[in-house]
Amino acid sequence: MKHSNLLTLFLPLLLSLLLLAPTTKAAMIQIDLGNAASGLIDGSTYALIPDILNAQAGQPAPFDAGIGSELFGDPANVNWQFNYGAIAESILSASFSFGIWDHDSAASGSQLDAFSLGGIDNTAALDVMFESGGGATDAQYSVYNFNLGAAFFADLADGNFSVDLDIGGTGLQTALFGGQVSETATNGYHLIYSSLSITFEDPSTPPSVPEPSTLLLIVLSLAGLKARIK
């Protein structure tokens, strides 16, 4: 079959597909717990505790105070929950993050006992993040990000998403005079914020179709192609 005949055959089909295949619209839920606008910078060191307490002022637990201590004992495990209402539509993507100060993963051993998202164990993944740079010095602020794949979608859809974090191990303490850093038998830290973002199909918005100008350009391009191959 000649190229011109192929073009004549498939041009109506192409235009029909463009008109009958609208683009799905998406909506997003964004929930922030704690102070997501603290101004603290990932990877930076904040040696003055008042800076951290100011960032936590007025926030809900566990984002309102220190958890555990380098001097007085390991922190208890903490839990926080996102509540946003059930999602009936198909979830397309999701992400999770949290900011933490002074978890001291540069100290010897592991500073993470357990970590789960929506009941799914993610201890190994977060431990790798901790040990590969986060908390590299005493009093460092670090942000950790997770892309939540399809394995999390069923739990996300019910409108409640829980996070469990258990930190322990040795810590780091900077001396008041001389600035010498030493290891401590216990560890403490401060949570600054946590965020959850979910993108899902939005049935309330009519699907979009290609703009008429876009269709016109396609038709003109095909017409030009047909003229060249005659």
From TrEMBL:
<feature type="signal peptide">
    <location>
        <begin position="1"/>
        <end position="26"/>
    </location>
</feature>
<keyword id="KW-0732">Signal</keyword>
<dbReference type="InterPro" id="IPR013424">
    <property type="entry name" value="Ice-binding_C"/>
</dbReference>
<dbReference type="Pfam" id="PF07589">
    <property type="entry name" value="PEP-CTERM"/>
</dbReference>
<protein>
    <submittedName>
        <fullName>PEP motif putative anchor domain protein</fullName>
    </submittedName>
</protein>
<feature type="domain" description="Ice-binding protein C-terminal">
    <location>
        <begin position="208"/>
        <end position="228"/>
    </location>
</feature>
